[in-house]
Amino acid sequence: MGPDAYRTARLAETVAELGHTADDWGNVTPQDEGDHGCANDLVHSLSETVAWAKAVSGVAKRAAAKGFPIFLGGDHALSMGTVHGIAAHALEQDRPLFILWLDAHTDLHTPMTTDSGNLHGTPMGYISGLNGFDAFPPMPKAVPEENICMIGLRSVDAVEKETLRDSAISAIDMRMIDDHGIAKPLSVFLEKVAAANGLLHVSLDVDFLDPTIAPAVGTTVPGGATFREAHHVMEMVYESNLAASLDLAELNPFLDERGRTASLMVDLTASLLGRRVFDRHTPDFS
């Protein structure tokens, strides 16, 4: 129901109002994938997740060749398909792929390390090339750790902390944002993408936002990004002219309040695509 909630919140119309052409490709339908087993008995919905990843990947690659795809989910396992397809496109373009992961969680587990069995906690493990994803199609090229920036972290378990400790992933938690603001670490990452002539995929999870402004997610974590912080991120990404694709993940309309989370996510998408209150200029405060 998440994609339909975005449609109701006028995502396509909002994109068109900004001067872009908006084509709704409809909902993706996966093929029957058979029965995949996992040595970790806690893992559930593995076959369904593999089927969705394969179906979404094919659509993602085709869409990336035609324009700026916006993927509507669904839990964050959506990104196992979207990034797989975008990575194939980046490989054909001979450009490095970078990931901006806006989320309360790292989602850095594998099917073998998850103690919840929820595969929406594993997409970044898959994307970055960790072992344990034998049931899934291999990444066209794993995204190097140094090409990944996670912003908004505030719920990271012990296994993920250990993985991060030994990795080159840029992990920006909310304490770091409290200390330094959200613009400084993001600008450092965007400069790295620009220097490499990279393609940037932005993956926005509803729980990146504070639940007081975005309640429609099943994994709410207090202390998330504020309204202005979230828009600031999107405005900076737009100004960088680096973004090539976008995930809108984890919206659960049954938990929303009069559609306000869906509307906020649409507004953030508009900021990523260039919406401004007015054209910016340098004022003279003297």
Keywords, separated by commas or semicolons:
286 residues, alpha/beta, Arginase, Chain A, six-stranded parallel beta sheet, 38% helix
Write the layout of secondary structure elements.
Blueprint: H1 2-8, H2 11-17, H3 46-64, E1 70-72, H4 78-93, E2 97-102, H5 123-127, E3 148-153, H6 158-165, E4 170-173, H7 174-180, H8 183-195, E5 199-205, H9 227-240, E6 243-249, H10 260-272
Parallel strand pairs: 1-6, 2-3, 2-5, 3-4, 5-6
Helix pairs in contact: 3-4, 8-9, 9-10
- How does the overall form come out from the CA principal axes? globular
The largest pleated sheet is described as: 6 strands, parallel
The count of DSSP E runs of length 2 or more, i.e. the number of strands, is 6
CATH architecture: 3-Layer(aba) Sandwich
Low-confidence blocks of residues: none
Give the count of structural domains.
Answer: 1
End-to-end Cα distance: 52 Å
Compute the average pLDDT: 95
Tally of DSSP helical segments: 10
Structural class from helices and strands? Answer: alpha/beta
> Portion of residues in helices?
25-40%
**β-sheet strand percentage:** 5-15%
Write the element-wise H/E pattern from the N-terminal end onward. Answer: HHHEHEHEHEHHEHEH
Account of the protein in words:
By secondary structure, the protein is of the alpha/beta class. A six-stranded parallel sheet has the order 1-6-5-2-3-4, sandwiched between helices. The chain contains ten helices and six strands. Helix content is 38%, strand content 12%. Strand 3, helix 6 and strand 4 form a beta-alpha-beta unit. It has helices at 2-8, 11-17, 46-64, 78-93, 123-127, 158-165, 174-180, 183-195, 227-240, 260-272; strands spanning 70-72, 97-102, 148-153, 170-173, 199-205, 243-249.
